[in-house]
Structures are given as structure tokens and as C-alpha cells.
Amino acid sequence: MKTVELGRTGEQVSQIALGCMLMGTLTDEASSVKMLDHYLDAGGNFVDTANCYAWWPSPGNTGDESEELIGRWLAHGGRRDQVFLATKCGARLSDPEEARGKTWEEVQARFEGASPDTVRRGIDDSLRRLGTDHVDLYYVHVDDRSTPLEETLSALAEIVRAGKARYVGWSNVRTWRLERIRQLCDRHGWPAPVAVQQQHSYLRRRAGLSHKSIVDDEQLDYLRTHDDLTLVAYSPILKGVYDDPEKRRNHDIMDPYQGPDAEARLAALTELAAELGVKPNQLVLAWLLHQTSPTTVPLIGPRTLDQYLAAMSALDVTLDAAHVERLDAAGAHAP
Ligand SMILES: NC(=O)c1ccc[n+]([C@@H]2O[C@H](COP(=O)([O-])OP(=O)(O)OC[C@H]3O[C@@H](n4cnc5c(N)ncnc54)[C@H](OP(=O)(O)O)[C@@H]3O)[C@@H](O)[C@H]2O)c1
Fold first, then answer.
1. Is residue 78's pLDDT more than 90?
2. Predicted local distance difference test score (pLDDT) of residue 334
3. What is the Å distance from ligand 1's center to 186 Cα?
4. Whole-number mean pLDDT of the chain?
5. Residue 158 C-alpha to ligand 1 middle, in angstroms?
6. Minimum CA distance residue for ligand 1 atom 36
7. What is the atom index within ligand 1 of the atom nearest the CA of 141?
8. Residues lining ligand 1, judged by CB closer than 6 Å?
9. Is this model's pTM higher than 0.90 or not?
């Protein structure tokens, strides 16, 4: 697998990142370990988790499961030095049982946030579950507007100074906040984010819809002109909706996208996928892998081994400039 430079750090991360959100809950231990081993054997190194994965699948799940599973895998496999390990803090719940059945807005209101104490305690707890003395990348999972940025950033700087995290990143963040974060880092000499983890796929969110998590044209423009930040694209196949019209009709991940632009892009995608003899999900990943400005690392989230292998097969799809241009040009609104 090819690698890309993370921001301008000199660090090489694999062009596909492996999301471990469902490992230890919806994906059992044996399948998770097979995926992780296969991914490293295929040249992958960019492993993504969080301190809240995944509390939601079933009663009794806490959010510790994914980090703990990765910890066991690292302990047994001894491959820590082959992994560029990313985790996050900020979206953990103190009482997952109390949050079950609540709306997404109600759940978000219960997130732990990014106060200095939470961030400091968060890294120590994650390191314990992961069984390692450092992570390579530590994200603020959800931008927290109720904590002064200076407080979060100085706590993150302490964590980096202590060697507990090598780099920091931000997720679910608006562009103006990213700019403010970078200015503060510059002013105080704090480590600035090298990665921004946002929801990003081939479909574009509906024109006029404001959203802190989904990349929009302004954010793309910002990232193009700030190449010290790599875009890590989560939900790159939008939960697999591209291969499955029924899922597309019913899945709430489609809510921000439905409309004429999505229809036009889906038509272009389906047509080109048929011509190339590949699946639409696979073509979306291949298209993301061909994005160079900004550099984009698709962060896949397979639940099963078959889904993992299907995602990895995107590496075998070569698109020429005309294919990329056709997909880029499709849509009902100007980019
Ligand atoms: N920063 C954040 O806020 C944030 C948010 C979400 C995720 N993430 C990270 O990003 C990673 C990926 O996100 P994601 O899980 O949303 O990505 P995704 O790959 O778009 O969605 C994963 C889901 O897509 C379906 N799927 C996967 N491969 C498929 C295939 N080949 N064919 C058909 N369906 C397929 C499965 O759905 P079924 O289970 O229905 O089969 C699977 O659960 C996560 O593991 C996590 O590390 C971060």
C-alpha cells in the first residue's frame, strides 16, 4: 500500500486508515484480529480508535471495547512499532446506559468535552486500555465550544511534552475554529493539529446546510491551502449506501445529502462503476484515494472481514484523469 505524509510531519501513514470503531462489539475478536493483521501485512499502518468505541450497539457496552481489543492485539502480536496509532477523547459518556434511547442531540449534550482534566485523564485511560506508553495521534473527538481553546491546547501540549502523544488532531470542527486553533498554537508555541478528521465522501452535503462534521467547499479550500493538515475522511462510503439503493433510502446518514446534487452524483458514479466493472462503494474509495489536494486518507469502518476485503480492493482500481474529472464534474450545483 502506498503511503502519504501526514501533514508536513515527515511521518508516512498508509493511504487507507483502518477504523476500529466496531471492534470488540459488533465485530468479534477473531474477525477484528484477522482484519488488523491482514491490514498490517498489506502495508497498512494507520489504525484509528477512540475512548468511546463503541458504547451504543448493546446494553452493557461501555465504549472501552475497541481500545481494549487493540491493546490485547498489540500485546499478543508485538507489532506496536508497525502501527501509527490514533485515538480520541471528548465524546465519551460517563453513563452510557442513561444515554440509550436518547436523541443524537441529547447524547451530544452528555459528551465529556475537552476540558484540561478530561483530556489529561483521557490520555492516561486510553494508554492503559491500549497497553502502550504513547499514541501517535491524539484527537479532540468533537470540537468543544464550552471550554476555552487555550485550556484544551495547553493540556494537549503537556501531553505531547510528556511523550504520551506524538501529534494532535481535531475532529468534527468548523473551519473558523480550526484557524483559531492554529493561530493560538502559533502564538503560544503549542503543537498544532496535523490531521483533521471529518465526514467526507463522494456525495456533497446539501447546499446551504450548515454542519460541523461534514466537509464543505470552504473547508476543502482551506485544507488545499494549508497542507500541514491532512484530511482523514471518516464514513467514506457512508455506511455502504452506494452499493445498496434500499439502504440509501432508509439510512439516516443520507439525510444531509438527499437532493438533486446527490442524485446527479449517484448517476455518474453508477454509470462509471458499471463501465469499469467495479462496485460503487469501491469506486468512491478509489476516487478518494486519487484526491491529492487536499491529501485525503479514507478511514474505512468495516464490520465484517468481507467488507474489509471489499474496501481494500479499492487499491486495485486505477482511475485515469478523465475518470476523476467525470466524477468531479457531476452534480447539480457548482463546486
Ligand atoms: N471522528 C468521528 O466523529 C467519527 C465518526 C464515525 C466514524 N469514525 C471513524 O471512522 C471509521 C469509519 O467510519 P464508518 O464506520 O462510519 O465508515 P464506513 O466505512 O462508511 O461505514 C461502515 C459501515 O458500512 C458498511 N460497509 C462497510 N463496508 C461495506 C461494503 N464493502 N459493502 C457494503 N457495506 C459496507 C457496514 O454497514 P453494516 O454494518 O450495516 O453492514 C459498516 O458498518 C470508524 O471506524 C471510526 O474509526 C470517526
1. no
2. 53
3. 34
4. 96
5. 32
6. 239
7. 1
8. 19-21, 48, 141, 171-172, 197, 234-240, 243, 281, 299-303, 307, 310-311
9. yes
Tens of pLDDT, residues 206-261: 988 889 999 999 999 999 999 999 999 999 999 999 999 999 999 999 999 999 99
pLDDT computed for residue 332 by the predictor: 83
Distance between CA 36 and CA 38 in Å, rounded?
6
Residue-wise pLDDT tens digits, 130-164: 999 999 999 999 999 999 999 999 999 999 999 99
Protein residue whose Cα sits closest to atom 34 of ligand 1: 240
Q: Kindly give the pairing relationship between strand 12-14 and strand 17-19.
A: unpaired
Q: Which atom from ligand 1 is nearest to the alpha carbon of 240?
A: 34
Region of 163 (left: φ > 0; alpha: ψ -120 to 50; beta: rest) is left
Q: Which grid cell is 80?
A: 506496536
pLDDT reading at 4 higher than 80: yes
281 closest CA partner among 317, 250, 256, 335: 317
Backbone phi, psi, residue 6, to 5°: -80, 115
Average pLDDT over residues 301-306: 98
Q: Which domains does the chain have, with CATH numbers?
A: 3-241+287-318 (3.20.20.100)
Percentage with pLDDT > 70 across the chain: 99
